């Protein structure tokens, strides 16, 4: 038999230091996602077993919870804060993992689960996942789940109620032409926000007008194009409800470029209440969902599953509330 590969062999093959290899395979902070991926690939190719992997093979536990996110944007960053706070006094460490842009969203999620589950993590929290049929060797909890199968344990906010309240608020201010900038059609939350918007319009006796509805998908370029379409048309809305805060902030930017005053000529409401919402000028009126609370609730559900217990609830919906700031006013 040949010599068993050492951590020095992994470091040399990956072109990094031994300390970096140790951090990468043990799920510690301070290593770029791309570097972690390269190190784990070399670990797999060489057949190297770190102390963590070796101990996990003996005990079937690693003491690490993985969180898979598509990007480290404001929403997922707040989720990670909530997860980290919930794990602070526990025996678990946190491994945050993001996908390669060279793969499709579904591709990197499946590959990440395959790489991490059963060797590096004891359980995984997936944030706004794309995959519908997903399985792993460890328990999984999804935050802001896909529109697909519902048998995965999930944690989400009251998207329907929040969107309904946002639209009702604009109606109460006197707006009658209220636009909607929608999010990712494949997320359940996006569909519920659309439904809450429609319900509030119907209850107010206002028609649903597809001309003032656009899909931004939470993607910066698409959101910008959608905002331009909404605001540049002759019969533009006097108010816009956006499915997330970053979309709402883009609406405000586009409005400024077009010479449209917010809130004098256009009222804007977002959804999330990420830190950027209170840092904008004017500050954004929004629907606050407990983003860090989503992370903490997911930890509670996941640790119960990892302990072999049945959680009290496997589908949690947390309440939202309206936060009024400077981007909303009655129409002129």
UniProtKB/TrEMBL annotation:
Name of this chain's protein: LacI family transcriptional regulator
HTH cro/C1-type domain span: 6-46
GO MF term set: DNA-binding transcription factor activity; transcription cis-regulatory region binding
Highest taxon in the source lineage: Bacteria
Domain HTH lacI-type: 5-59
SUPFAM superfamilies hit by this protein: lambda repressor-like DNA-binding domains, Periplasmic binding protein-like I
InterPro entries on file: Cro/C1-type_HTH (IPR001387), HTH_LacI (IPR000843), LacI/GalR-like_sensor (IPR046335), Lambda_DNA-bd_dom_sf (IPR010982), Peripla_BP_I (IPR028082)
């Amino acid at each position: 038999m040949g010599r068993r590969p050492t951590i020095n062999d992994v470091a040399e093959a990956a072109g990094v230091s031994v300390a970096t290899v140790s951090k990468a395979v043990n799920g510690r902070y301070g290593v770029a996602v791309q570097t972690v991926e390269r190190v784990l690939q070399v670990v797999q190719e060489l057949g190297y077993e770190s102390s963590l992997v070796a101990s996990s093979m003996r005990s079937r536990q690693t003491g690490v919870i993985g969180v898979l996110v598509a990007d480290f944007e404001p929403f997922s960053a707040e989720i990670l804060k909530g997860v980290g706070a919930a794990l602070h006094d526990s025996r678990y460490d946190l491994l945050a993992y993001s996908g390669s842009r060279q793969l499709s969203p579904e591709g990197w999620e499946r590959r990440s689960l395959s790489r991490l589950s059963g060797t590096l993590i004891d359980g995984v929290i997936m944030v706004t996942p794309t995959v519908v049929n997903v399985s792993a060797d460890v328990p999984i909890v999804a935050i802001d789940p896909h529109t697909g199968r519902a048998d995965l344990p999930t944690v989400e906010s009251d998207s329907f109620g929040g969107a309904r309240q946002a639209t009702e608020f604009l109606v109460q201010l006197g707006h009658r032409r209220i636009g909607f900038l929608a999010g990712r059609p494949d997320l359940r939350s996006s569909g519920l926000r659309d439904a809450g918007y429609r319900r509030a319009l119907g209850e107010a006796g206002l028609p649903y007008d597809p001309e003032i509805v656009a899909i931004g998908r939470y993607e910066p370029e698409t959101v910008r194009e959608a905002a331009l379409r909404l605001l540049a048309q002759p019969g533009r809305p006097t108010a816009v409800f956006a499915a997330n805060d970053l979309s709402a902030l883009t609406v405000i930017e586009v409005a400024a470029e077009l010479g449209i005053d917010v809130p004098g000529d256009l009222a804007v409401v977002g959804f999330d209440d990420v830190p950027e919402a209170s840092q904008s000028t004017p500050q954004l009126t929004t629907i606050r969902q407990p983003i860090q609370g989503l992370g903490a609730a997911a930890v509670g559900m996941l640790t119960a599953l990892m302990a072999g217990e049945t959680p009290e609830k496997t589908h949690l919906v947390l309440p939202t509330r309206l936060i009024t700031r400077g981007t909303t006013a009655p129409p002129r």
